[in-house]
Write a structure and sequence with these properties.
The chain is built from no helices and 14 strands. The protein is mainly β and about 180 residues long.
Amino acid sequence: DPIPRLKSGTALAWDGGHYMYTLLGAAYEDKSTTARYYFYRYDVSTSLWTQLANTTHAQGAGNAIAWSGYDDMVYVLLGSIEHGTGFARYNPSSNTWETLDFNPSWTVTDDGAFLVWTGGEYLYALRGEWDETVPHNDFARYHITTGTWENMNPIPESGGVGDGASLLWASEYSDYIFAL
C-alpha cells in the first residue's frame, strides 16, 4: 500500500542501519477533525514501508525528526503555529511514544524547524520561522539524559531561519554543526 500524501513538515531520519523513519506532515488547514498523526518506517533492504504507532501530537510544518544513537531512539518536534507543538521520543523496539517536555522558552515550532543528534548526549534544534513578520534565529539543545533544554546563541543570519532551514552533524567534523 502506498503511504498517505506528504505535506508540509515531512521529515526523514536514518538509524544508521536498515531503517528510515518519517513524519508525513500536515497542511495548515488540517483542523482537529483532519489532523494527521502518520508515522512510517522504510526498510532500505526490502524497500517496504510499515505504518508505526501514530505520533502523540498533531503534525504540521514545524515537524522535525532525529535518530539518536546515544539511546537508539527517534526524537521529534511535532506541530506548527496552527496546531501547537509537542516534543516526543519513539522507541523502535516497543513501537511506543513518550511525550517529553518541550523547550519551556519556546511556544511553538514552524517552517524550518530541525533536530540533529551530535554523537553524544545532545540533540540540537532550530525553532523555525514561527512568525513570518520578524526574522527568528532560535537555536537550542536538549540533554537526553536529564531531559532539559538549554537555549544557545542565536543562528547568525540577519534574515532569520526560513522555511528551508536545516542542520547537519558529521562525525568527521565533530566539533561543528552545519546550518543552512
